[in-house]
Amino acid sequence: MLHVHARKHEAVAAEIRRLIRTGKFGADETLPDRSHLITRFRVSRATLQMAFDILIGEGTVRARRKGGTTVCPRTPGSLCYGLVFPGPVPKEHRSHYWTMLQTLPQSLASETFPRITAYYPDLADPHRPTSLQLESDIRNHKLDGLIFTGPVPDQVGTLPVETSALRCVSLLSEPLTSSRIPVVSLDWKSLIDRALTWFKSRGRKRVATLILPGAGPSNPYIDSVRLSLQKHGYQTPSCWVQGIHPDSPGWAREVVKLMMMPPARQRPDALFITDDTLVDEALAGLLESGLKIPSDLEVVAHCNFPVPGRSLLPVVRLGYDIPAAFHSCLELLRRPKDQNQSIKIPAQFESEYKPNTPR
Q1: Is residue 207 exposed (0-12), middle (13-18) or buried (19+ Cβ within 10 Å)?
Q2: Which residues, including other chains, have CB under 8 Å from residue 211's CB and lie 6 or more apart?
Q3: In 3D, which of 106, 105, 93 has the Cα closest to residue 276?
Q4: For 92, which of 2, 129, 140, 243 is 20 to 30 Å away at the CA?
């Protein structure tokens, strides 16, 4: 069925693309002759040729002299996935995690790696150009799947996601109780447990934490941190579990200085910084406090690997292999629907990180 809002040759290209991607025409199969397609789509020969020019240019079909037009085999390098961000990422939210996700497809690009197109739809306004472009590419069957960098919305533009027939996967950096589509999640429980176990092995007894706050008074991440502190035997005052909003990471510097003002036996001897957005400012506060790291204070700082550079202070870095998480998203998009549809990426220390994730 042709899309009435598209130009004729684009609508014909979209329909042929749909027939190929839904298996109506397989790899190396010859498409019906031009006369048949002209009659089927009710277009001129020139319009049909323009449609084929699009499909040939993108590698969907190839034309052979006296051999008709055949479907190109689908190789990993011919696949195209959409990487969907929840709207434009503001400068103040561009933590290492967001920056890495935005630049990762380009760093992985090769002839054998799928093409990745980034989209920044405004989910609050389906009629904005950023939303309409993604909707158009879905309707025109230009994508083989979507990777959402967060929970999947009910619709993209005016198109309900569930009716698009596209394979989708969600890459989550925060807890989610349930999801209706495949999920690759960064295992935040392993991050907490490994940090607290590390402090225990170093003989630390008074642990403070810096956390990104949730939208309400009860946040599953903060609640999990508090429960884990109790499980590991730490008696942590509530004022040592501080939420710093990502819009104002500078407050981490001031909070840390306040925490470190009391005498040695009344202040924390360990600090867990649970998000890389807060790390630089928190470490700046420690520098200003004059404490010796790690003798006065053991610090575990969240980090997404590969790390951007050296730390300001000798801290232990613990976090996630983001390229491995991205590859896991691609794996789920290729995995049959009857197989397990979730993958957890465990936290690892910097000494454990091996930057040789296979493609």
Answers
A1: buried
A2: 219, 221, 222, 225, 241, 242, 243, 244, 274, 275
A3: 93
A4: 129
Nearest to 72 by CA among 59, 55, 54: 59
Chain Cα centroid distance, residue 98 = 8
C-alpha radius of gyration, the chain, whole number = 25
- All residues at 6 or more sequence positions from 92 whose CB lies less than 8 Å from its CB, including other chains: 246, 247
- Report the distance separating Cα 198 and Cα 298, nearest Å: 10
Q: What is the largest CA-CA distance in the chain?
A: 88
Is residue 210 within 8 Å of 287, Cβ to Cβ? Answer: no
Mutual orientation of helices 45-57 and 34-41 as an angle, nearest 10°?
110
CA contacts within 13 A on the Cβ side of 161: 20
Q: Which residue has the tokens 């569930």?
A: 162
Instruction: Give the pLDDT score at 161.
Output: 64
Q: Hey, is 185 helix, strand or coil?
A: strand
Q: Measured at the alpha carbon of residue 222, what is the angle toward residues 221 and 228, in degrees to the nearest 5?
A: 90
Q: pLDDT (tens digit, 9 = 90+) per residue, 225-267?
A: 888 999 999 988 989 999 898 888 999 999 999 999 999 999 9
User: Are the C-beta atoms of 92 and 81 separated by less than 8 Å?
Assistant: no
- Give the residue from 149, 162, 152, 138 showing the smallest Cα distance to 83: 149
**pLDDT at residue 215 in the model:** 47
